[in-house]
Amino acid sequence: MKHFVRSLTLLVLAMVGGCSTITGDGRTVVRVATWGGAGDDSEFAKVEREIFAEFERQNPDIDIRLELIPGSQEYVRKMLLNFIARSEPEVMLLDASSAAVFVDNGVLKDLTPIIAKDQSFDLDAYFPNVVDIARRGDQVYAIPKDFTPMVLYYNRRLFDAAGVGYPKDHWTYEEFLDAAKRLTDRSRGVYGFKFANWMPGWITWIWNAGGDVLNAEGTMSSGAFDSPETQRGVEFLATLMKEGVSPSLSESAAMGVDLFTQGQAAMEISGHWALIGYAAAPKGSDGKPLLAMDDVGVAPVPTQLSSSQTVMYESGWAIGKHCKRVDEAWRFVKYMTSEEVQRKYARLGLAVSARRDVAEEIAAKDPREAKFFEIVPSARPPWGAKVEKYNPVETIGQNMMDSVLKSGKPIPEALRHAANQVDKEFAK
Amino acid sequence: MKQRPIGYLFIAPATIHLLLFAWIPIAYAAYLSLFKWDLLKDSKPFIGLKNYADTLQDQAFWNAMWNSTRYTLVSVPVGMVVALFVALMINQKLRGITLFRTLYYIPAISSGVAVSMLWIYVYLPEHGLINTILMRFGQNIDFLSHPAWAMWALVFMSIWTGLGPRMILFLAGLIAIPTSLYEAADLDGSTPWKTFWHVTLPMLVPTTFFVLVTSTISAFQIFTPVYMMTRGGPEGTTDVVGYHIYSEAWEKFHVGLASAKSFILLLAILAVAYWQFRAMKSQLEGYSTTVS
Fold first, then answer.
1. CATH topology of A19-149+312-380 equal to that of A151-311+387-427?
2. Residues of B in contact with A80 (CB under 8 A)
3. Buried/exposed code over A242-255 (b: 16+ C-beta within 10 A; e: otherwise)
4. Which of A235, B75, B90, B279 has the greatest CB tally within 10 Å of its CB?
């Protein structure tokens, strides 16, 4: 009975305290939240687990408690609710797409004083435009881990077979469409392009047509989302499907396979992470992969502007506002963004390292990586890095796209509706 | 009878529970609904009835109300007819009938999340249960992602999940009908259809009414399948009011506005229930003194 009472008391204390911060063997607990990975049996997860284990070996006084929350929306919501309850994890991975809601609501600790005190840490080692994502004035709220611009991938084998020249650095929409038409051979189930129906897959088409979902200041949608330029961008996407150079959404759903990886789509727009999938392409009847890595080329996304623009998705390590174990948390952040660990991550190929030294080293060895390196300066962060109320824009934008591409709603009407909805959300 | 203070002790647990988990939160929500109460912001200014005024002009809210209405208008009557039919089938003296009763009730005691997962697989394009069959006829429908289908996919599922409780209620109603009435009908040479129409159905009116009111209320509160299966999509076609309010509060953190929306929903449900009571009142008269 005594034992029971004691356990009960401990349990209640643990619940009241939110979490125990010291383990039985006297180590300090550092809670680390990310949006998934590490749980499964993939090569990536194995390496990541090893990276965490190595940190604990180097820092025997710290116990890393991973909190994996799958789904980026779910992750953001959970972290913010944790913060509201004053029990956010000590260390959080920050997604550029939702950085503003964290930074601008004071969810994160300003790292500037910590950086200033730490002689062994050099912020200049990271790409400055990537650090900017979580920078407000002089204050820095996250140390970037890695990032990726969205690029145009192409399959050289299909281009050669159709006798079409590879994508150029400055490709207009007309040139792109012309090439895509010549690459399409529906009798063999080959498409010129595979459109990916999510915001990262379509925002560059709108930007490069001169449009956008918000005005330049990120304060209003009317005048931007419903502008003639945005309309041209969306019209172009509808054209791709009408012309049959990209499977329609219902065709894509019915096929249920990744056409580019299957060697059945000549081009697609995606991030660096796609290379992991390409490397694991399924094998054909001849035993060779349907998509050979040597055939995968990288080019900037097509544009109607004077130069191609793209979006950059990024993640960085941040420390929670209510964190009491700042020293331990900082040691972890520093370790995760160190040259040693960054090199391990870079080899996995999920993204481009945010450290210039590591990224340059990789780019020097691999022409495809060098191409990424070239595209980086033309990449700007997603709106969510700057606009705190951005989250609903993504849902509204996707609804707009679906209503056009699935239900055939007239584009000007769909865009006006979306712009109105965004402005109403912003006014709340 | 004399009132005894001990009675309060007996009702205390239920009362305290109701007070703590229903009345106080409701009162607090009423208070919150008068503020611009953003969970992430320090300033939470008093804005009077502005949240209510904004809600009345909020297209997305009325879209959600309409979605809940059409969900209710189809799922409740169809669900009730199916449940009554199953109850009639199951009210027979057959061997192993208790097994069937149990089987039909299982969905009702299963976790809503697990049931939703199951139905995600049923509706899956290409490899889902339904599409595996449809593919033989060259058809393939992405039920949960197509604006024309998603809502009806949820309705169809609700008929299955709601079957158990409704069936049990109808069954209880059927068993309570005195056999003497059936004997009398028999003696009068009634056909089974006429017996059903003139004896069974009228005697089931109180049960039907109860099932109607409770089903309507719970249909208006549907949340779990939407959260699990469609997230209000595609294109907002399954954004029912329960999910809409949840997302206002816990995705956008506009707790004040979400509270105001909850109260408007409460008023709407009260109005519907009141109307149902009125409409059924004449029907119900006389049933308090059922033949025993």
1. yes
2. 39-40, 253
3. eeebbbbbbebbbb
4. B75
SS3 state of residue A67 = strand
**Which of A74, A388, A407 to mutate: most B Cβ within 10 Å?**
A407
- For the CA atoms of A86, A91, A96, A100, the dihedral, rounded to the nearest 10 degrees, stands at 30
Judge: B235–A105 Cβ closer than 8 Å, yes or no. no
Q: Are A105 and B250 an interchain contact pair (Cβ–Cβ within 8 Å)?
A: no
The answer to whether the Cβ–Cβ distance between B234 and A402 falls below 8 Å is yes
Best CA proximity match to A317, nearest among A5, A102, A45, A42: A102
The reply to whether B250 touches chain A by the CB within 8 Å rule is: yes
CATH class of segment(s) A19-149+312-380: alpha beta
B126/A392 touch (CB, cutoff 8 Å), yes or no: no
Task: Indicate if the alpha-carbon torsion angle A298, A302, A308, A310 is positive or negative.
Answer: negative
What is the total count of domains within chain B?
Answer: 1
Q: Which CATH architecture has domain A151-311+387-427?
A: 3-Layer(aba) Sandwich (3.40)
Decide if B10 is inside a domain. Answer: no
Interchain contact, B147 vs A428, CB within 8 Å? no
Domain that holds residue B84: 16-283
Q: Write down the ipTM of this complex.
A: 0.74
Q: Give the one of A105, A256, A399 whose C-beta lies nearest to B235's C-beta.
A: A399
A399 vs B236, B250, B254: nearest CB: B236
From first to last of its 428 residues, chain A has per-residue pLDDT tens of 556 666 666 555 555 444 457 777 788 999 999 987 556 677 788 888 899 999 999 999 999 998 988 877 889 999 999 999 999 999 999 999 999 999 999 999 999 999 999 999 999 999 988 999 999 999 999 999 999 999 999 999 999 999 999 999 999 999 999 999 999 998 998 999 999 999 999 999 999 999 999 999 999 999 999 999 999 999 999 999 999 999 988 788 767 678 999 999 999 999 999 998 898 889 988 889 999 999 999 999 999 999 999 999 999 999 999 998 999 999 999 999 999 999 998 888 889 999 999 999 999 999 999 999 899 989 999 999 999 989 889 989 999 999 999 888 999 999 999 999 999 989 88
